Amino acid sequence: MASQTAITTNSSPATAAEPSILDGSLANIANEPLAHSVIEGFRTAKKTGIAFWELRQRFSDLKKKETILGYGHNQWEKFCKEQLGLSASKARRMVVDVCETYGLPHPGKKHDGSKNRNYNPPPWFAFVADGTKVDLARSAAQKSVRDGDEVAATYWFRQLYFAEYDVWRLLATIAAEDIGVGDLTVKTHVIELMQLAEKCKDERNSDLLHVMNAAIICCRAEKKRVADDYCIWYRENPTFKMPLPDEVKAEMENTVQPPILDKYKDIHTDEGRKMGRRGKAGEKHFKEVASKVANESTVPGFAAPIMMACPHCNGTGRVKLPPCEEVA
Fold first, then answer.
1. Residue 44: what pLDDT?
2. Is residue 81 part of a domain?
3. Cα angle vertex 130, ends 127, 136, to 5°?
């Protein structure tokens, strides 16, 4: 029995000398040793190879009252989460990867549909061309955009692009998560570039130009993570409930009133006009003090047009008539 269960930790397909479900010789091997060996594989090298697929097949073939370590036919995803620490999507991708690598049938049933799904993104444990794991390359791309590092961002987006990762989904996430209200035009730019990329996609990878443009725009944009900060706060405070109006009123009564600053009393207020801030003096105070904003955008502001004197009247408003000609 020991020699039979040892094959489940191999990362390569079973050979003729090793019993395998591929040739039907695993029929007499208990389900529990197979499951234990897969669990042990995850605790050590995080690799189980075809044994993971074999265990998945075992779950699919369980009868009504049969179980593996107490998990029934329809509890494969629960087993992966509790015993292997894998989400349902990661477990499904591992099964699909093994099936595609060794030409095996997908064992999924209707409850998870894995045999009928096509996965465009690479598996979570895949690598980009330079040998970096996909999940790490994705993280590097987003952090580079946050830092405004165009060189690093374009490098990582190119790596993800050629690994067939869904770069447009990542760019859309960045536009909403990291840029957000900092620059409301970026989301529109990303969508437009994505649409142009679809029209330009060809065997020469012409759509990569639009991916690079979108990455550079995201790097250069002003950023504000306020929406994601809200999401994180609500996630960290799951019991939060909006206070009732009476509770808000009671809280407001206990709130210390902030001071009335001098700049509040401008030409638009009665207090300001009583202080002499009316007419030209009031306009001057408003433009130089009261109208100033914090966190001002770097977009070019107002510039007065050039004033030139009228060539006809020289600014007097009167046009000098030419002298009358004498009549002969």
1. 65
2. yes
3. 50
140 and 99 together in one domain: no
Range of the domain at 173: 134-227
Could you tell me what percentage of the chain is helix, strand and coil, using 3-state DSSP and rounding each to the nearest 5? 50, 0, 45
Say yes or no: 89 and 149 in one domain: no
Euclidean distance between CA atoms 324 and 4, whole angstroms: 123
Q: Which two tokens stand for residue 200?
A: 């330009």
Statement: residue 3 has pLDDT above 70:
no
Judged by phi (left if over 0) then psi (alpha if -120 to 50, else beta), residue 38 lies in: alpha
Q: Where would I find the H helices in the chain?
A: 2-5, 31-44, 50-61, 76-79, 88-102, 134-147, 150-162, 167-174, 186-200, 208-220, 226-236, 245-253, 270-274, 279-285
Outline where 175-260 has alpha helix (H).
186-200, 208-220, 226-236, 245-253
pTM for this predicted structure? 0.49
| Residues 6+ away with beta carbon under 8 Å from 30 | 1
How long a stretch of residues is the chain? 328
CB 212 within 8 A of CB 189: no
Look at residue 324 and tell me if it is in a domain. Answer: no
Has residue 98 been placed in a domain?
yes
pLDDT over threshold 80, residue 172:
yes
133 three-state secondary structure: strand
Count how many domains the chain has.
Answer: 2
Same domain, 19 and 103: yes
pLDDT tens string 177-189: 999 999 999 999 9
Q: Which amino acid is at 82?
A: E
